[in-house]
Amino acid sequence: MMPSAFETLPTSCDILIIGAGPAGAIAALLAAKKGFDTVLVDRAAFPRNKVCGCSLTQRGVNQLQSAGIAEILDDAAHISRIRLITAHRSASISIPPYRVISRELLDTRIATAATSAGAKLLTNTSALVHTNCVNLTRNNQSELCTPRCIIIADGISGTSLRDHPAFAWTIAPASRMGLGATLSKSPIPLEPNELAMIVRDDGYIGLVKLPGSTIDLAAAADPASVRAAGGPAAWLIAAFTQLAGDCTQLAKTRIHGTPLLTRKRNRVAHENIFLIGDAAAYVEPFTGEGMTWALETGTQIIDFAAKIITNKLLPSQATPTAQAWQAHYNHSLAPKHRNCERVATSVRSPLRHAALSLASIAPSLASSIAARVLRVREVPA
Ligand SMILES: Cc1cc2nc3c(=O)[nH]c(=O)nc-3n(C[C@H](O)[C@H](O)[C@H](O)COP(=O)(O)OP(=O)(O)OC[C@H]3O[C@@H](n4cnc5c(N)ncnc54)[C@H](O)[C@@H]3O)c2cc1C
Question: Which CATH number belongs to the domain containing residue 144 in this structure?
């Protein structure tokens, strides 16, 4: 259960975090644990869902463990195999383990842990960043808040930096869009411990069983193909019809879409404003690392924020700290993004390339992938 939202909008705090996804919520948890006056705002009502494959890497699990909240995954499912499927072939390959949990549960649990540690959570509250202050709006109430440090964790659909051209997005011209839905029955047979990945020239669709009985569907699709098919549902139905899948439920289910996925900001920090998670950059979902990057940056940012808060730095004095976060980000995250970009680019070709990509992210499995997929299962030209 979510703790009740705070009645009053704050006018000041040590650290204001915008967006209560994994990045913002873990940052709020760690900031509150340090004793900082921490405010976490999200424009959504919680619990809220999000288009996502819901699969968390072991690195992501480690972040939750280090934050002292490993138990929030106690009931998460495990996956250890990926079944790559094309129109003609399929191959099941073992992969490093992932934990699977719905985003309603995961995000709510991290945000709840943050409030237990002392963070104030304001849901249904939209934030708009001005120079050194933030306009918070809930229902008809509005307040200007002047935090010592502002963390932006509002994802790829975030609106808090709308008026800050310095943080403009660069979006890749060939970017795909995300699609997602929750189903009670999988359109194709699906084992409990596997990720089924339908790989097409114009995108890919992942299916996993969430704890309980529901199925999470998440896809990255070429927007032009989605338009040509007649919309997201028609695109998905065409893909599953080609596999002789059962599309009855898909035809009646609301499909959620996302903006174009592959994007990065011109910068990830300025004075006392710091960007983390998808709000800083995102690539594609094929490697299932987005939540991990969000948790990693949400954890790493705290030492930088702490410098500003404990030294009582004014925004104009915070530039060296902002530069340090930019350098740290470039060093630690950018190579991971480039690797994901390489995988995402190669997966735009048929199954053979998908298998090669997997081999590149799981080198120890390369030989088994090569033996079982590349040689045996190669898609005919
Ligand atoms: C199709 C698809 C499949 C994916 N599959 C996986 C997967 O299997 N594994 C994985 O690890 N990752 C996956 N991802 C990526 C993952 O979903 C994201 O990387 C992750 O959610 C990023 O977390 P975040 O905290 O940065 O942002 P988000 O989770 O997007 O949270 C941002 C929050 O900010 C709030 N917000 C936005 N604007 C404002 C505002 N102005 N004021 C206040 N609040 C605001 C939103 O309501 C939202 O709650 C997938 C993504 C897609 C599109």
Answer: 3.50.50.60
Pocket test for ligand 1, best of 43, 99, 123, 128 (most atoms within 8 A of CB): 43
Instruction: Check if the beta carbon of residue 274 is closer than 8 Å to that of residue 152.
Output: yes
Indicate the burial class of 102 (C-beta count within 10 angstroms; 0-12, 13-18, 19 or more). buried
Using CA atoms, how far apart are residues 286 and 291, in angstroms rounded to an integer?
A: 12
Cα of 52 to ligand 1 centre, how many Å?
Answer: 8
* 162: helix, strand or coil: coil
Q: Euclidean distance between the first and final Cα of the chain, in Å?
A: 53
Count of residues in the chain: 381
Q: What is the tens place of the pLDDT at every residue in 240-295? A: 999 999 999 999 999 999 999 999 999 999 999 999 999 999 999 998 999 999 99
Centroid of ligand 1 to alpha carbon of 381 (angstroms): 37
CA distances, 259 to each of 21, 51, 97, 251, 262 (Å): 17, 11, 29, 22, 9
Say which DSSP state 370 is in: I
Q: How far is the CA of 328 from the centre of ligand 1 (A)?
A: 22
CB atoms within 10 A of CB 314: 11
Residues spanned by the domain of 36: 12-53+102-172+262-339
| Token digits of residue 6 | 């705070």
Q: Is the pTM of this model over 0.90?
A: yes
SS3 192: coil
Smallest CA separation from ligand 1 atom 44, residue? 42
Extract the tokens encoding 226.
């989605």
Tokens matching residue 38: 């921490």
Element (H, E) at 344: helix 334-346
Q: Is residue 62 part of a domain?
A: no
